[in-house]
Amino acid sequence: MKVKKFTAMDILRQTIIMAVLIVMLFPIYWMIVTSLKPTNLILMNPPVFTFKPTLEHYIYAFEQANFALYIRNTLLAAIFSTIIVVVAGSLASYGFARYNVGGGNLMFFILTTRMMPAIAVVLPFFVIFRTAGNSAIGQFFHLGMDRIGTLVVCYTIFNLPFAIWLMHSFFQDIPVELEDSARLDGYSRIKVFFKVVLPLAAPGIAVTAIFCLLFSWNEYLFASILTRDMAKTITVGVGDFWTQRGILWGPLSAAATVCVMPMIAFALLLQKWIVRGLTFGAVRG
After folding, report:
1. 8-state DSSP, 174
2. Which contacts (CB < 8 Å, 24+ apart) does range 93-99 have?
3. What domains can you pick out in the chain, each with its CATH number?
4. What confidence tens digit (pLDDT) does each residue in 225-260 have?
5. pLDDT, tens digit, for every residue of 119-147?
């Protein structure tokens, strides 16, 4: 068996990679360590690295700060908005891919709506949803201030253009001849979409859903402006540990760990789908 010899360039490259990884991962490591430190050791100088781990900060975050409610709200808003975006986006992008609606100009217009900064529309959204909360339709769809339905609508509006743009190339790369063969076998256009196109576009749809879920989970601006207590999300709830007595570093680190780690684990678990989905449709003949 031939052993590969490492050159000076290989060693330099690996050293640079390790240095970058340490710089990028150290804040996450420090956040987790701080969440497990006893309160009296958190601000010690020099820092203490050997200690008996404690879960008191996590207990405080979930029992005293009602952090479990924020997690539930975030999950509901993220999951429901992602489902709506994937369903509506797949239908729209398939239509654009097969019928070339607008000659490409409409697709560009849809993409430009994603470029619009969220801060530009947060005030109109505030006025709209405050008014909608007093109407019968708004109450039926759970819209209004401090409502989860409001967050679902906001996340759907901002994620839908991205989903349409991302899935458009996936559907374009599926050969039309497969659909024509299914039509000759007696399938309707709807059956062709569900039984032929969707299974082939599954990697692209999966990666779109993953990104929409990540965007919704990490969203802060709309949640901070349009919610108060009952619909507050996890990203906004982290700020509750900045009190008049000062920053509660232990509970804050515990809450931040709960906020970050699920999405990191989720991305690592589905990374093969992300890579496959991003490369699917990347090359055309």
Report:
1. S
2. 93/163, 93/164, 93/165, 93/166, 93/167, 93/168, 93/170, 93/171, 94/167, 94/171, 94/193, 94/197, 96/164, 96/168, 96/171, 97/168, 97/171, 97/172, 98/171, 98/176
3. 55-279 (1.10.3720.10)
4. 999 888 999 999 888 888 777 888 999 999 999 988
5. 888 999 999 998 888 888 777 777 888 89
